[in-house]
Design a protein that fits this description.
8-stranded mixed β-sheet, about 180 residues, alpha/beta, 10 strands, 5 helices, globular, two-stranded antiparallel sheet
């Protein structure tokens, strides 16, 4: 019997240097969009076929029209994790109200490409706590917001990381990818 390779789960976000993914008012006007960032994201999207979002990230994405860029990411399956949404009526988007860690553990065992946890500190932290995140990919912006939506909350245990790649891009942003050393622990 041929063994199915385990898919890589990457928690990715753009964040401020002080670790926020939105300003206190929910704004993202501080984000610097550059051709280099777009090229890096374009290359990354070619490696994934699944997007995971929490409710707040989904609501923001949906409010931006076409699912907040999911139209461009054609062929993706998106799972939105929420215990409060009754349903989602959007092509290619499925609502998950069960345990996020257990769901993603099963998803990783299925054939496919990479899995992207898009933004959302609460879902990202829950999946880190469950030990199912393999990588953390960040676009760190040169701004201190002081408050807002944190990139991470307390996962309940130490999460050891190993730097895999980093480089500076336009606007003074730093792209950094870390491997989670104790994934699955």
């Amino acid at each position: 019997m041929e063994e199915v390779p385990v898919r890589t789960v990457t928690y990715g976000a753009a964040c401020s240097l002080d670790g926020y993914i939105t300003a206190a008012d929910g704004g993202i006007d501080w984000l610097h969009f550059s051709k280099e960032a777009q090229a890096a994201m374009g290359a990354y999207w070619k490696t994934v076929d699944t997007i995971l979002m929490g409710r707040r990230t989904w609501e923001f994405a949906a409010s931006q029209g076409a699912g907040g860029g999911m139209k461009e990411a054609g062929g993706m399956t998106t799972y939105v994790f929420s215990r409060t949404l009754p349903s989602i009526d959007w092509p290619g988007v499925r609502l998950v109200s069960s345990d996020a860690g257990a769901f993603v553990r099963e998803l990783k065992a299925q054939p496919g490409r990479g899995i992207c946890v898009m933004g959302g500190g609460e879902l990202g932290t829950a999946l880190l706590a469950a030990g199912v995140v393999d990588e953390v990919g960040l676009n760190i912006h040169p701004v201190l917001l002081g408050s807002g939506t944190p990139l991470f909350r307390d996962p309940g245990h130490r999460v050891a990381l190993e730097l895999r790649e980093n480089r500076t891009i336009d606007g003074g942003c730093v792209l950094a990818t870390y491997r989670v050393r104790n994934a699955g622990a």
